[in-house]
Amino acid sequence: MTSKSPEDILYRVLLKTEALRTGVFKLSSGTLSPYFVNMRLTLSYPSAFSSLVGVYRHIVQSSGILESQEYICGIPTSGLPFASAAAYSLGKALIYVKAKGETHPRERMIEGVLKAGSSAILLDDVVGTGFTLASASEAVRRQGGIVTDAVALLDREEGGRALLRSNGVELHVAAGIKDIAQRLLDDGVIDDDVFKNVTAETTSRKIDRSKSGE
User: Fold this and answer.
1) Whole-prediction pTM value?
2) Side-chain-side CA neighbours of residue 113 (13 Å)
3) How many domains does the chain have?
4) Tell me: the pLDDT tens digits for 33-85?
5) For residue 177, which of 132, 122, 214 has the smallest C-alpha distance?
6) What is the rounded distance in angstroms from the CA atom of residue 133 to the CA atom of residue 164?
7) Phi-psi bin for 195: left (phi > 0), alpha (psi -120 to 50), beta?
8) What angle do CA 79, 168, 73 make, to 5 degrees?
9) Has residue 214 been placed in a domain?
């Protein structure tokens, strides 16, 4: 990890890979958003991807949660490549939550060998409402695991942190969308109107958490 902050590294990667786009986008929840973040694009840029793995490693190590955790739990699908690389970089075992449609009602939702009573850090790329991570925490707990922390690169600031906290999970991120949007504005990448749309969305847009895929 260099002397640059996790937020600075994330910001530069988003610019380099054009993983963040503004416009009008329909999210997996069915709602419209003035921006979209596709972190899968970074997988095609080895140096950028490596930098982001370093960001995850820094967050986990600096937060002081690493020693008490035995597993890194990846979230399908875009979070899984990052979880895989981060787990092996940190010397932790990897498990992951199966994607929707991959299991029958009575099948286990966790892939990998999860020992009962063991702790796992949830790892995803972008957090929206937090519903996906909250569901993942329940899946791990149903299989006997312990979940107290989740790590992501970007927080869309749509209530995910509060939802996770209500489920006993603390969220750790590199940056929130408001801070990233401010930097984009300062650097002339977006104009005032786009900035207002992006930042207003974090407090005004209503999302049905039961349907959100983020």
Assistant:
1) 0.89
2) 2
3) 1
4) 999 999 999 999 999 999 999 999 999 999 999 888 999 999 988 999 999 99
5) 214
6) 7
7) alpha
8) 25
9) no
